[in-house]
Amino acid sequence: TDTPVTVIGLGLMGQALAGAFLKAGHPTTVWNRTAAKADQLVDQGAQLAPSVGDALKAGPLTIICLTDYQAVRELLGAADAELDGTTLINLTSGDSAQARETAQWAEQRGAHYLDGAIMAVPPAIGTAEAMILHSGPKPYFEAHKSTLDALGTVTHLGADHGLASLYDVAGLAMMWSVLNAWLQGTALLKTAGVDAATYAPFARQIAEGVATWLPGYAEQIDRGSFPAEVSALETDARAMAHLIEESEAVGVNAELPKLFKAMADRAIAAGHGGEQYPVLIEEFGKPGTD
Ligand code: NDP
């Protein structure tokens, strides 16, 4: 807990990150373009660096969390020489290509670079619920894991710097898919006077049940073989048609089920109707038709 750490960028997230390091007892140096955002942290014991360069030099580890990658490159570009020997962890949200490019850019300037993604809101930072993903050379992560532990549940995904961003959006895809499916069902049940709170426990049970299928289905995808052990895709497609018809009959939006039925129909047309649902990975693994 006596390892010094620097946090650059004190927006809502950066303030939470710096606050968690302070709370865990780390000597914490901060810098923000708008210096006033450091006031509260300084009251809690943070050191406000007079420049980005000074912030980078304050210790062996710097966390940066700005609006986007462009802001990161602009800011650190001006402090060019100062990256040498620093471990730089970029927790700014962005895509995998930006992460890989920024890694190359930072490494050329002598930094030990890790990319990261925060799967949490600021109030959760510092608790086990805050999932913080890292990717890049593992030794850089291991050297600072005990410091990073102050932020939440921190994990290393692999050496490819793009992995944290990819896991980030993959997690969002999961989140929105579950939420949208739940809203579809809630809208259907509302037409019969069932309120959302009544349906929610049932929906949760379904979502948890489906989640238990993932490891077995993942094995099929990794093997590239999709025998219909419990159900064939054409059986699913018939149930999808039923969901669309019911939605339309009661005046509920049917766009979402139509979208996934169109994907299933394409897979069936390609000859996969007798295989199991995860064969749809072939549709997901290529550009769509929009
Ligand atoms: P804020 O808008 O609160 O803060 C943005 C920060 O970026 C500020 O410190 C701002 O400085 C700084 N900044 C922007 N442009 C520049 C620039 N050109 N030069 C220097 N500094 C710059 O955003 P958040 O803190 O909420 O988010 C930061 C990152 O964390 C984003 O990538 C976001 O996607 C990610 N994140 C946020 C979550 C959240 O719930 N808030 C959840 C998960 C990830 P200044 O104060 O001077 O404007």
Automatic annotation (TrEMBL):
Key words of the record: Oxidoreductase
Domain named 6-phosphogluconate dehydrogenase NADP-binding: residues: 5-157
Sample GO molecular function, one term: NADP binding
UniProt domain NADPH-dependent reductive aminase-like C-terminal: residue ranges: 160-285
Sequence similarity: Belongs to the HIBADH-related family.
Identification of the protein by name: 3-hydroxyisobutyrate dehydrogenase
Organism of origin: Streptomyces purpureus
